[in-house]
Specification:
Elements: H1 8-18, H2 23-31, H3 42-54, E1 58-63, E2 71-76, H4 78-89, H5 100-106, H6 113-144, H7 151-191
Antiparallel strand pairs: 1-2
Helix pairs in contact: 1-3, 1-4, 2-3, 6-7
Domain Transcription regulator PadR C-terminal: 97-180
Protein name: PadR family transcriptional regulator
InterPro entries: Tscrpt_reg_PadR_C, Tscrpt_reg_PadR_N, WH-like_DNA-bd_sf, WH_DNA-bd_sf
Length: 193
């Protein structure tokens, strides 16, 4: 793979470095691990698997289960491990920020404050739930994966999620206060003689 190509094949290759998996398994495992900060759809996973196989970075085999259709399971090759290692050594690209909520808030007006308050309250609920999930995940991996060599790296990424959620919660509370002040100012102006 050429330098600075799409990250999707490397995300898939990274998942295969953990264990042989089918496309379905990759999507399922990614949702409960890297899915908190990286999302891959089936429409991205299967082309990436074909690409990795064509380049010799992964190999495919049929996995037979009695009474079921054959599953196609992919494994990382030694060449794939080398490619993953080289990709990991490259500096990460800057993260583009695309946030529809911020876009809507930027174009907000006093008449939309009620909607804005509702959206911010939803963000606060979601981030509070995310923090509960992160605590649950940390407890689970500390219990089930205590001796896994990748545990420190998993905890690092989990910590990022926790810090991000706490920061968004702080921002959300500040934003609610600011919106309520705007709302109160609009109400006072509306009642002026």
């Amino acid at each position: 793979m050429a330098a600075r190509t799409r990250s999707t094949p490397y995300a898939v290759l990274g998942m295969l470095s953990l264990a042989p998996m089918s496309g379905y398994d990759i999507r399922k495992e990614a949702a409960s691990s890297i899915g908190y900060f990286w999302n891959e759809s089936y429409g991205q996973i299967y082309p990436a698997l074909r690409e990795l196989q064509a380049r010799g970075l992964a190999k495919r085999r049929a996995d037979r289960h009695a009474g079921h259709r054959d599953r196609q399971v992919y494994e990382i090759t030694e060449r794939g491990r080398e490619a993953l290692h080289l990709w990991r050594a490259e500096p990460p690209r800057a993260m583009p920020l695309r946030n529809e909520l911020l876009l809507k808030l930027f174009f907000g007006e006093r008449s939309s404050v009620e909607h804005d308050v509702g959206w911010i309250e939803q963000v606060i609920r979601e981030e509070s739930e995310a923090l509960r999930q992160y605590r649950r995940i940390k407890h689970q991996i500390m219990k089930e994966q205590r001796d896994h060599p990748s545990l420190p790296f998993w905890l690092i990424t989990l910590s990022y999620g926790q810090h991000h959620s706490r920061a968004v919660l702080r921002w959300g509370r500040e934003t609610l206060n600011a919106l309520r002040a705007v709302e109160g100012g609009a109400a006072r102006r509306g009642s002026a003689p």
